[in-house]
């Protein structure tokens, strides 16, 4: 079974978007380099970012996102982003009217069920959970194995939190990846299995 990774681009003060759901300069690093990240040719990054990000993207089998992100992106027009094979959407609402039932999107009512469905679909590939409310719920439920952040050099002051509603301490191991790109710092931690409530 593949590991579950919580992932997103984030401001230095821990936000994935401002209060109006705008990412501002969080994704500037995706267009600030000269190495194409994918076949669209719209994304060009510095070589260190390419080496790190492309390798990670190639391992993702399924992405889990909340209904809010799904609605903001118009469901990616029914095509999972970044070459991912399936998207699991955490929602209590049905798919939008007219939604193509053949699109590789799965609508699930809770985060635990979403992770179970995603792991079933992903096999031994990575299950990526989008940062924000759904990612925070997965972390709080003990379902996340690893946290990855692409930290952009901006301070928002307020907005949508990377860890969403998490309201208690969770330990991470020491970072095992720290890579400097152009306008970004890539970081990776494994989630510690020590329970901080016991300490």
TrEMBL record:
Gene3D superfamilies in UniProt: Dihydrofolate Reductase, subunit A
Matching InterPro entries: DHFR-like_dom_sf (IPR024072), RibDG_C (IPR002734)
UniProt xrefs under Pfam families: RibD_C (PF01872)
Domain Bacterial bifunctional deaminase-reductase C-terminal per the UniProt entry, residue ranges: 111-169
Name used for this protein in its record: Dihydrofolate reductase family protein
């Amino acid at each position: 079974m593949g590991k579950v990774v919580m992932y997103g681009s984030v401001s230095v003060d821990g936000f994935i978007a401002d209060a109006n759901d705008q990412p501002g300069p969080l994704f500037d690093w995706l267009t600030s380099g000269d190495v194409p990240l994918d076949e669209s040719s719209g994304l060009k990054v510095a070589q260190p970012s390419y080496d790190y990000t492309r390798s990670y993207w190639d391992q993702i089998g399924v992405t889990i996102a909340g209904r809010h992100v799904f609605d903001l992106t118009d469901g990616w027009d029914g095509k999972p982003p970044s070459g991912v094979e399936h998207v699991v959407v955490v929602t209590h609402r049905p798919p939008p009217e007219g939604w193509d039932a053949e699109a590789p999107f799965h609508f699930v009512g809770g985060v635990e069920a979403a992770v179970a469905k995603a792991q079933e679909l992903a096999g031994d590939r990575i299950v990526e959970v989008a940062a924000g409310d759904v990612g925070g719920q997965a972390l709080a439920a003990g379902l996340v194995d690893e946290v990855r952040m692409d930290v952009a050099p901006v301070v928002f002051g307020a907005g949508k939190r990377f860890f969403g509603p998490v309201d208690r301490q969770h330990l991470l191991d020491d970072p095992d990846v720290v890579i400097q790109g152009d306008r970004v710092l890539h970081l990776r931690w494994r989630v510690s299995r020590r329970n901080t409530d016991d300490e």
